[in-house]
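Morning. Coffee machine broken again, so started the prediction first thing and wrote up yesterday's gels while waiting. Chain of 156 residues, entered below exactly as on the submission form.
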Amino acid sequence: MAGAVEARLAELGLTLPAVVPPLASYQPAVQSGVYVYTSGQLPMVDGKLAVTGKVGAEVTPDEAKELARTCALNALAAVKSVAGDLDRIERVVKVVGFVASASDFTGQPAVINGASELLGAVLGDKGVHARSAVGVAVLPLDAPVEVEVQVELTEA
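Came back before lunch.
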């Protein structure tokens, strides 16, 4: 049975995807005490990247913002895989976003807003978080965006 968070996702027309399998030697998410840390989540849909390339070159900022939203949705799936229930999220503590950027692109914060806005829409005040948005030369699989999320859970 889906909880309130998954019901809110449905109201937004979204479905929690399956957890993206690791691309190397790591776990999609780990829990330490009341915190869950996700690995960097790529904008994978059905096991593949829909778009590759650098933001500000092959990928527009608007496309990248949507991809960051997909990354956040994948991060929620990873959180659920260890927490068992997204309703246990007490708050999103930190979001770190990486944007594979053309050398003259400086709009990384607006791109990562895609992830931040999704978390706010789904979790309300619990989705308000600290954040970093970083431009990088390249990401795994030539992904335009990667997002990691840290959440605090209520006690089980």
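The first helix runs from residue 4 to 11. Going to sketch it on the whiteboard this afternoon.
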